[in-house]
Design goal:
Chain lengths: 244, 244
DNA sequence: GCTGAGATTGCAAAATACGCAACGCGCGTT
DNA sequence: AACGCGCGTTGCGTATTTTGCAATCTCAGC
């Protein structure tokens, strides 16, 4: 709708992947250098973008401030924070918090494992609905009508050979999730990583978020991960209680 | 330079303070509703902004992702993270990490004290240069020419009755900071809060960041805070070593 | 079923952003 | 030391894009 703004957002997205030079950005957006320069200048003035000594552009510090503010607007995250920290300390594993936002499951918090095994996940990024623990938990909690719509639209990308590959299979899986009150991801999204996830609910029992624990296979096998389930459920229960 | 973009950024800044309705935003920016609507739509499409059921606008999840990426682009933060965590655990106090960015000292990481005493500081926000420990440390490390320029431009806002109030006083303070290798803030920014801060350096000895510990007066008096200095210096030394 | 507050759209005016081409500047090359 | 190249920057005329208005639509409360 607004061309210059759309381009500016594209620039920000691009800078999110790494620093860029003016020409690189111009080439990427396929617009004239001049245009990019002026957009960058505007954003620089408000600290959304900065540039280093060698004229390479990077994301600016204003984004920190905004993201920080955006988080505080997510009540769940505030409430969950200390509990997640405790779970992270106790289990030593990577812990995620995700919420439902506009048809997607979005990670809004992440605590790394003590062993710094890098995982492909990031705060602010959507989680796949058909093959992650939090995705399943959140999807299973949506109105049935919307679940069906979404299940029909998913791409069912096969990340590993365990990935659920179609609506029927997913529908069955969601039934299990609803019945048992938690979801598993047995190397469905990343090979050699198992996860378990459970919902956080408000006073009316509505699901307002999902917490998961992710463990690389080489640390714990799937059955051993299941032994962490009581800790996970205790955490989500505590968060839900604090949530009022 | 780019009007629509500038307005859009203004909208983001405003949403950073809380959720807004269309009319509220229009009034705040003093532009027509239509204009705001279209800007919001553009940002909504890229998940920079979202709106809830009742048509109130909030910051979107894309900002999380970007902020997360922006952090990872700050090498110092990555390297410092585990050390800060350790310092935070050992002392139990609020720990900050700040870097120099475009003439300002910006907080890029913060770990709260175990006693949740709220401090007025926020990741992404600039720290005052004349009355915070990190501000002094970072300012003292800049080229003298720039220091002078900046000292002439600062507003020397008197937050408390201990706040440094002019260039001469600040110049003397910075000499002390350089000489001793760390800086203090004796209730100069927030009454009843004392801080100590020290620089992180790269292999060439250039200052690339600053770490500080902040303690409310009711927990420890100034002399007691000074006893934490060895811990602080050990931390900055360790970070500097890891920095390569 | 009416009323009104707020969101949304079509349109025409013009302000604004755009691309071009020329300039400046620093760095590495010959 | 001079030259040339790469890259950022600027002035300017054009026309695309954005803007504000006014009319319309939608939904909630009465």
């Amino acid at each position: 709708m607004s061309q210059s703004l759309a381009r500016a957002l594209q620039i920000l997205a691009s800078l999110g992947e790494g620093d860029r030079s003016l020409d690189e950005l111009a080439a990427e957006l396929d617009v004239h250098k001049t245009t990019v320069l002026r957009l960058l200048r505007t954003m620089e003035a408000d600290r959304f973008v900065r540039r280093d000594e060698s004229y390479r552009y990077r994301l600016g510090s204003r984004l920190f401030a905004l993201a920080d503010a955006a988080r505080e607007q997510h009540v769940v995250r505030e409430v969950a924070s200390p509990h997640l920290r405790q779970l992270n300390l106790k289990t030593g594993q990577t812990v995620h918090l995700a919420v439902w936002e506009n048809g997607e499951a979005i990670y809004i918090d992440k605590l790394d494992s003590v062993q710094s095994v890098r995982m492909y996940s990031r705060v602010g990024v959507p989680a796949a609905l058909h093959c992650t623990a939090v995705g399943k938990v959140l999807l299973a909690a949506q109105p049935l009508r919307q679940q069906e719509t979404l299940m029909g639209m998913l791409d069912y990308h096969s990340y590993t050979r365990h990935t659920i590959s179609g609506p029927e299979e997913l529908r069955a899986e969601l039934d299990v999730v609803r019945a048992q009150g938690w979801a598993a991801d047995r190397a469905e999204h990343e090979a050699f990583i198992n996860c378990i996830g459970a919902p956080v609910t408000d006073h009316d029992g509505r699901v307002v978020g999902a917490v998961s624990i992710s463990v690389p296979d080489l640390l714990l096998n799937y059955d051993q991960v299941l032994e962490l389930l009581p800790d996970l459920l205790a955490t989500t229960k505590a968060i839900s209680a604090d949530y009022n």
